[in-house]
Specification:
alpha/beta, 3-stranded antiparallel β-sheet, 7 strands
Length: about 160
């Protein structure tokens, strides 16, 4: 048996302080302020990631975008978190031009699920849905997991 250890690293001191105030004491132990880009080889990245920052990452770093639109690529990326749409879903052939046909970003699927399930809550701030409930609803409505390509397959 092996233990999975997750650590979240930020280089921005203000971001570190802001995040730290919103975390439980246990979760805060996993947040690290770093002065070096060489700490991690898996980066979750948003819109503001520039080419200069990407080039400072260690060789072999995997970039996984979490934003609505993926950042401009200067290195190797995985796809935006996404799923395959159900066969019965119409007019979903090319929702996002950076994803394969019949594949949709997770953030877009979340909006569809909110409508289909009649959920009135919004996930923002400290409010989060039960991930198991969301996953079950996603599968129940016919969305299916998308296998991620390896880093060498996703080169551009």
């Amino acid at each position: 048996m092996y233990v999975l250890y997750i650590q979240v690293v930020t280089l921005d001191e203000e971001e570190y302080k802001r995040l730290n105030t919103k975390l439980t004491p246990e979760a805060a132990t996993k947040l690290v302020l770093s002065k070096s880009y060489n700490v991690s080889k898996i980066w979750l990245v948003g819109d503001g990631l520039g080419e200069d920052e990407q080039l400072k990452a260690p060789k072999g770093t995997l970039f996984i975008p979490y934003s609505q639109l993926p950042p401009k690529k200067a290195r190797i990326y995985f796809s935006t978190p996404a799923m395959i749409t159900p066969k019965h879903l119409e007019n979903a052939d090319s929702c996002e031009n950076w994803l394969p046909r019949r594949v949709m970003s997770a953030w877009r699927i979340a909006g569809i699920l909110h409508a289909l399930e009649g959920w009135k809550e919004h996930e923002c701030g400290n409010m989060m849905f039960d991930i198991d409930e969301v996953w079950k609803a996603t599968l129940d409505h016919g969305f299916s997991p998308l296998a991620m390509a390896s880093a060498t397959e996703s080169k551009t």
